[in-house]
Specification:
Order of helices and strands: EEEHEEEEEEHHEHEHEHEHEEHEHE
Shape: globular
Bound molecules: NADP nicotinamide-adenine-dinucleotide phosphate
CATH superfamily of the largest domain: Medium-chain alcohol dehydrogenases, catalytic domain
CATH topology of the largest domain: Quinone Oxidoreductase, Chain A, domain 1
Helix content: 10-25%
Number of strands: 17
CATH class of the largest domain: Alpha Beta
Largest sheet: 7 strands, mixed
Radius of gyration: 19 Å
Strand content: 25-35%
Distance between the termini: 11 Å
CATH architecture of the largest domain: Alpha-Beta Complex
């Protein structure tokens, strides 16, 4: 099969011929229709995850996938060939990724069915970013009328988080560069979103909107400790981007470090919101598998939203 691989790290991802995986007991073999890029794919290729996770070479990159069940491993029940599924590769090693024509995944976790009304291309861009956004909002327990600052709002996680936060009835302050990024963030939801320019005086802009500080922050980018200064006393920060309580010592703010858990209920809930029209998967560019290198270049070049890869 064709797959996006690296033979060592750091290295530039390349489209190569790889062995088609066989499903082990409890696994599904999925024919991948669509996948998408996430920061972890770029970080893996750049060698940043060395020493943190086992790397199996040639290493196939990719976390998100959507496609069709092709074959079942021993003992799998509840699925049949032809079922349409999507999810996230969550194996305890790197190398069996989804940027490929086929991927094997456990049938019991990090996988859900694609409901009617959700296109495979969108499903392939939803799993990891959507779960990270949902887990972050749940961690800070954001409720109606609270004010949330989403730092990194134009990215894959941020553009889903903006929509989910607005749907909770929160006042959303979203960071973006002036120009195309700001236009993109403004257009994410019908609800009003306050867009602030993170390349300017962020503190002044946020204080204009929330003079006493925001109730919560989603730290998806930027300096987390500086963001903590924009939170009201007793406020909360969710950080999938590595901020810890230690980094804000002495400040009356609770840090919730996030390790996204794209479990089946979370994926199903996200998929249903998309299918009902309540949530839009913000795919802004789609590349064929053969042009994966261009997709990685686009990810590095400030492309807002999600970058999808068509694998069929
Ligand atoms: N822990 C987990 O389980 C988990 C899971 C998924 C993602 N993550 C992390 O979550 C973060 C967001 O992921 P993502 O996929 O959404 O990344 P992304 O698509 O690269 O988005 C990041 C966004 O932040 C913007 N940005 C850069 N510097 C900024 C600053 N100083 N202030 C505000 N915004 C800034 C970027 O704009 P430009 O491109 O114009 O610079 C980009 O729009 C990443 O750190 C990723 O590693 C963690």
């Amino acid at each position: 099969m064709r797959a996006v691989t690296v033979d060592s790290v750091p290295a530039s991802p390349a489209v190569t011929e790889a062995d088609t995986p066989r499903p082990e007991a409890g696994e599904l073999l999925v024919k991948v229709a669509a996948a998408s890029l996430n920061g972890i794919d770029v970080a893996t290729a750049a060698g940043y995850l060395q020493g943190m996770m086992e790397h199996r070479f040639p290493l196939i990159l990719g976390k998100d996938f959507a496609g069709t069940v092709e074959a079942l491993g021993e003992g799998v029940e509840g699925f049949a060939a032809g079922d349409e599924v999507f999810g996230v590769v969550m194996k305890p090693f790197l190398g069996a990724g989804s940027l490929a024509q086929y991927v094997t995944v456990p049938a019991g976790h990090s996988l859900a069915r694609i409901p009617a009304g959700l296109k495979a291309q969108d499903a392939g861009a939803l799993g990891l970013a959507g779960a990270t956004a949902a887990d972050s909002l749940n961690a800070v327990a954001l409720v109606e009328h609270e004010t949330v600052l989403i730092s990194g709002a134009a990215g894959g996680v941020g553009s889903l988080a903006v929509q989910l936060a607005a749907a909770r009835g929160a006042v959303v302050i979203a960071t973006a560069r002036p120009g195309a990024q700001t236009d993109f963030v403004t257009g994410l939801t019908g609800a009003e979103v306050h867009v602030v320019d993170f390349t300017g005086d962020l503190r002044a802009q946020v204080r204009d909107i929330a003079p006493d500080g925001v109730d919560a922050v989603l730290h998806l980018a930027g300096d987390g400790a500086q963001l903590a200064d924009l939170v009201r006393p007793g406020g909360r920060i969710a950080s999938p981007a590595g901020l810890t309580q230690d980094a804000v010592k002495g400040k009356d703010v609770t840090i919730h470090p996030i390790m996204a858990d794209p479990n089946a209920p979370t994926l199903t809930a996200l998929a249903e919101q998309v299918a009902s029209g309540a949530l839009r998967v913000p795919v802004t560019a789609t590349y064929p598998l053969a042009q994966a290198a261009q997709a990685f270049a686009a990810f590095a070049a400030s492309t807002p939203g999600k970058i999808a890869v068509s694998c069929s």
